[in-house]
Structure formats: C-alpha cells, structure tokens
Amino acid sequence: MSTGIGCRNLRVYAGRRELLSVPDLHVASGRTLAVLGPNGAGKSTLLRALGHLSNHRVTGEVLLDGRPAPRSVMRDAVVAVLQRPIMRRGTVAANVITGLRFRGMNHREARTRAWPWIEALGLEPLVDRDARSLSIGEAQRVSITRALAVGPRVLLLDEPFSGLDSTTRADLLADLRAALTGRPTATILVTHDRHEALALAEDTALLIDGQIRQHGPTAEVLDNPGDVDTARLLGYTNLLSPALTGGTQTLVARPEHTHLALGDESDDAWVVSGTLRRTVALGVATRIDVDTPAGPLTCLHPGDVLGTELPPIGSDVRVRIWQARSLT
Fold first, then answer.
1. Residue 190 has pLDDT above 60, yes or no
2. Mind listing the domains of the chain with CATH numbers?
3. Rounded to two decimals, what is the model's pTM?
C-alpha cells in the first residue's frame, strides 16, 4: 500500500463553474511536491480540497495512505501553513506548542517535544518575545515550526514565502528543506515561483486553468515545457517558430539565454534576425527587445550595457539564443 496523500477524480465547483479537475495525484510520504502555477490557476483550491478545508463543492476522493480519508481522519493527519501566518496571544514559545496543546499534550511535554524544532528553525533567540511583535518573516518561521512540531503526516504549504525579503526567504527555504529531509511527511508546496520548487521539492506539478499539465521530477519538469502555456510559466517567454529558426520544431528560450550579437561570436547558438525596438537598463541587467517577423524576442544581458555598445533603435540586429528547448 502506498503511503502519503493523494486524490482520485477530484473536482471543485463554484456554483456550476468547475474550478479544478485532477483525475489522479499522489504525494508519497517523505517527498515534497511543488504545485506551480500562475495566479488564479487553482493552486490554493487544490490544497484546500486535499485538506478538506474547502468552502466550495468538492467531488471525488481524497486519499490517505491509499484509502479514502474523510474530514475527521484528515483533521488529525494534516497541518497547513498559510500565506499569512496567524499568531495567537503570548510568546513565541507558546505559539510553537499550540498545535501540540490542541492535541491534548501538557505544557511541559509539549515544550520538550517542540524544542528540537525551535532549535532547528533558529527560534531560540525569540522564544520569550511577544509573538504579535514579530516581523512577517519571523512570524512565518514560527508558523512553520509550529506545524513541524506536531509531526504531521501531511504538511500543506500555501505560498508561505511570498512577501518575504530575498535573504529571509532563502534562509527559511534552506532551513525547511533541512528540516524535512529524512522525515516521513508528505509535503505539498503551492507556489508561483519555480526557484522555490527547485529548492524544496523533489517533484513538481504544473497547474494551469484548474488542470495539471505536467507532473514529474522537478528538474525534468522545469527544463522541459510541454506547451506554450507551461513554457511561459517556467520563464521560457521567447517563442521561436520553425519559420524563424529554419528548424522543424517550435523552440522556447528564457530571456537570460537570449543575447544581442554585439560582436563576431561564433558558437552553437541559434541566430535569428530582427529589428531593435527598445533597450531598458535594469541595474543588474539590461533588457533588449527585438521584433522579428515571427514575433517579439526579449534579450537579457547581465549588468549594464553601455549605450555606445548598442546600435540605434530601429536598426537591423542579430540575436543569439542558446539552451533553447523544443516543446515536448
């Protein structure tokens, strides 16, 4: 029998409108699945349906360890961490042990059980702070620690890193990955950021318009878009038709792998011609937009490109593209 969380023929409706349709999904114990999709794709809808937390009409089956799991069973198995952390009155320590106390554990035992997680997530300096005085990053760290301390069979993460500054986000991602490694928890992370999926999840599902378009090992999914929609979701925003490349397949490429040919570079990159439309200095990079007969291309040069290095707007230019992918 397969352990973990899953679903079969799961559908979610708002009135007569179908919000979500997932015929089959399984996340094994000890693994993390990232559900990656644009805003409005149905990511949080899926998470809430799996946790029996939805306010919408849901049909199909939610499975725990391969068996249909009603709300009463999932209540004891699942812990959710939301985008906006909820802090109760009291100290950080009191908030961390809240989940254990709700499960009937006395205060001393709960603190003993939670302390290794407080250490693992770096909360020792904050244990006596008023939880409602914390920054958003600190509060989210408390929320995640509280969830892990319970020892859930299933951990649901609904965009927990959104709104955090880059340093706080990177540190919390690393700490959470380390905390989950070797644990028997089945984890589902909802995100719109492919870098979070790569950092945390062994597997990734691409959810668009309420349906899973691709599902598999994270590295394979992120580098092999199957259609134009998934390509754009994964950052492959340059569409290269056979008419443009002279090849036989439609290719896609990320802007950072697309540069204006400013010299006599010769390598195995694709080279296409177009007209320079605009340049925008972004500090850490320079964006260069080029119009071609088959559509626009966006080039992203690292650092500032001096205006004297660029041809005038409206000039005929050549664009070099490498690491292009064919749609699978």
1. yes
2. 4-227 (3.40.50.300), 236-326 (2.40.50.140)
3. 0.91
